[in-house]
Every structure is written in structure tokens, then in C-alpha cells.
Design brief:
387 residues, alpha+beta, TATA-Binding Protein, 2 domains, 12-stranded mixed sheet, 6-stranded antiparallel sheet
């Protein structure tokens, strides 16, 4: 276990949920986690054994000693942080327009809203059974509290609190109830993609949230992937990822940037994980405990979470289930209809639909309500849809 660090930056406020309206909902924000999977979809391969000789060493500065990529990867695998708190800012520039009212929700945190602009999340981590997330908005916030088996969700727009009791064997909340993306989660997704088609190197040391960091650089060799590189900034002392930047092939600009702006390595006080209904809150609602995938294959767990993967590594395509048909989407929102109507029509042996492409990602939405998304060329989406 790592000891608490004393040279940390200021921690985020530890007050209770704020009142007032908000323009986001955790039920919508859950797609945020899935959105990153589209860009760095999940895989399951080792990371250290794939490294060959001749790997570059990280340049040392006055604070950090030189480290090879192999050493950094090994230290990441062994990292155990007992607690931390901080503020994470996610920036996405995937070529989508800003659609603050998409779906009629007034939210920038729905399926497309989370893929544009900037979003801020405050996080508290006190171990596997104590977590708190707060999606911060200009007008309010949404909170999720995990304290033992108790799971609370607070919606400041509706002034409602929802409580459920997790199964006794649940170490962490199910994916749909842990919506925020942190650099550690993003890095884990990217590191899982390492295979023989990946070039692994290091770059100069840097500074993130006032802490010195090493930089790992993952570069796919498969030209069917639209990912140019993934840069992972690792804390020089704890080795916890503090920043992940994804760039598109042939671009120098970040398409996704998930970064701590503040971080403090210390176990937060227990009060941070106790939900206290603010004044004016409606009577708490009791709901059924979230479903838990339980033991089983990665494919089974993905299916339980509402998606399946096709392919492996950097060319993985994610098939999302339960997507409304194009007709239904157009009826739900004028803006959604305008956006979808502006996309080119495509067809093939798999059927017909609409195609979105940008420098980093491609998305195929079929007329019958299927969606295929990946950081890949469209041809791979068509192949996946044909299966």
C-alpha cells in the first residue's frame, strides 16, 4: 500500500450536494463511460511481457529518476492507492456540434453531449467500498455516493434522492452506476489494448495537477485504427494515471483529454461518503439494487452492461444494444432529427442507416436500431454489422 502523500495540491470541496437546477443526469451520464470504450474499447492482454528490447527511457528531471517503459508498466500494474480526492476535467473534440438540448432534456450530458465540450467531475475514493462522484455543472451537480452496500444518487434538478442496497458480494458498483471517467479508468482501457501491433515508448516527463509525471505513449500500427496515439501521464510517486490524451491518426490535437486538475493522495474523511439530503429534498426513493454481472467472461459482462464487442485490440468495434430507431430518434427531438438527417445514408448486406465519421471515430446507426461505434474506418463497422 502507498502511504499518503504530503506534497499534494488542494483537494476539492467536501460539502454536501448543492441545490439548484442542473443540466445533467447520471442516468444519461452513464454513456460517458461507454463513449470512451468506443475510442479505446476494452481488451484483455498482458502489458509487460509484450515489451521488447530497446524501449526508450523517460527523460529524468530534477524530481524523477529515469524509467523504461517496461519499468513504468510494471509499476502501474502494482500500484495500490489507499485513497485520494480530486477534480477531473474531460474534454472531447470529436467533430460533433454542441447540442445542449439534444433529446429535449436540456442536457449536455446525453449520448452526444458527453462527446463534445468540457465536463468536470469531482471524485473521492476511500477504498473499494467507499466512492463518491459529483458531476459538476454551471447550474448544479449530480452525485453518486457509495458507502459499503448503500448506494445513493442525488438529482438536484428534480430534488430527488434515490437509495438502493448493493449485493453483499459487490466490490464495486456496476458500470452503469459509475458513470464518471477518471484518468485511471481511461488508462486501464488503453493499456488493455496493447498487443504486438502496438508501439510502446516513453516521452519527456511532465507536470499534471502540480505533480511530476512520467509519460507513456501507445501508438497503434494497424492503419485501420483511427487512433494516432494515447499518452498516459503517470504520477511520479504513486504511478497512478493522472492524465490520458487520445489523438487521432495524423493529428496533433487532442480528441479526448481526461485529466486531473487537482488531486490529493490521502484517504478522504468518512463524511464525504455519507449522503445528507439537502433542505427541500423530496422524500428518498427506494429502488432495486443495480444488477451485477457477477463472474463470467468479459463478453458476458459486456452484454449485461448493454453492449458487445466485435474484434480485438485497436480495431475493436462496439455494438450498442437498445438504440432507438432513426425514426424514433427523429421524433424525439428536432435537433436529433436534423443531425441524423444531415448524415450520409449508407447501405449494404447488413441493411441501411446513417454514418458519422470524424478524424478519430466512426459510428453507424442502422434503420432498425443497431449502433456500431469504434475508432476505426467505416469498412470495419460494415463488417461488424454484417455479422
Amino acid at each position: 500500500m502507498l502511504a499518503d502523500m504530503s506534497d499534494s495540491t488542494t483537494s476539492p470541496t467536501t460539502s454536501g450536494p448543492e441545490g439548484g437546477p442542473t443540466t445533467s443526469r447520471f442516468t444519461q451520464v452513464a454513456v460517458r463511460r461507454r463513449a470512451l470504450r468506443w475510442l479505446v474499447p476494452a481488451g484483455a492482454v498482458g502489458v509487460v511481457a509484450l515489451l521488447g528490447s530497446g524501449v526508450l527511457s523517460a527523460d529524468a528531471n530534477t524530481n524523477l529518476a529515469p524509467q523504461t517503459a517496461a519499468q513504468l508498466l510494471a509499476s502501474v500494474a502494482d500500484t495500490k492507492v489507499t485513497g485520494f480526492s480530486g477534480t477531473v476535467v474531460e474534454k472531447a473534440a470529436l467533430g460533433l456540434p454542441e447540442l445542449p438540448n439534444l433529446g429535449g432534456s436540456g442536457s449536455s450530458s446525453n449520448l452526444l453531449g458527453m462527446l463534445t465540450g468540457s465536463h468536470t467531475v469531482r471524485v473521492w475514493y476511500g477504498g473499494e467500498t467507499k466512492q463518491r462522484l459529483a458531476l459538476v455543472d454551471a447550474l448544479g451537480e449530480q452525485d453518486v455516493f457509495r458507502n459499503g452496500r448503500d448506494l445513493w444518487q442525488w438529482d438536484s434538478q428534480t430534488r430527488t434522492a434515490t437509495h438502493s442496497v448493493l449485493p453483499s458480494d459487490t466490490a464495486k458498483p456496476p458500470p452503469a452506476h459509475t458513470p464518471a471517467i477518471t484518468p485511471a479508468e481511461a488508462a486501464a482501457e488503453a493499456l488493455a489494448l496493447i498487443d504486438p501491433t502496438t508501439t510502446i515508448a516513453t516521452d519527456r516527463t511532465d507536470s499534471v495537477a502540480g505533480r511530476s509525471t512520467y509519460t507513456l505513449v501507445l501508438t497503434p500500427k494497424d492503419t485501420r485504427s483511427r487512433v494516432g496515439s494515447v499518452r498516459i501521464s503517470l504520477d511520479g510517486k504513486t504511478r497512478m494515471p493522472l492524465r490520458v490524451v487520445v489523438t487521432a491518426r495524423g493529428s496533433d490535437h487532442a480528441a479526448i483529454d481526461v485529466s486531473f486538475t487537482q488531486v490529493r493522495f490521502a484517504v478522504p474523511d468518512d463524511d464525504n461518503f455519507i449522503f445528507k439530503p439537502p433542505a427541500g429534498a423530496k422524500a428518498p426513493q427506494e429502488t432495486k439494487a443495480p444488477s451485477h454481472p457477477g463472474p463470467g467472461s468479459a463478453d458476458a459482462k459486456a452484454a449485461a452492461a448493454g453492449y458487445t464487442t466485435i474484434g480485438t485490440g485497436w480495431t475493436t468495434v462496439v455494438k450498442v444494444t437498445g438504440v432507438p430507431s432513426l425514426t424514433a430518434l427523429a421524433k424525439d427531438s428536432g435537433q436529433a432529427g436534423q443531425l441524423l438527417g444531415a448524415l450520409p445514408s449508407v447501405s449494404g448486406s447488413w441493411g441501411s442507416g446513417r454514418l458519422f465519421t470524424s478524424s478519430l471515430m466512426s459510428a453507424l446507426i442502422t434503420d432498425d436500431g443497431r449502433a456500431y461505434i469504434g475508432a476505426v474506418d467505416p469498412e470495419l463497422l460494415y463488417q461488424a454489422a454484417a455479422k
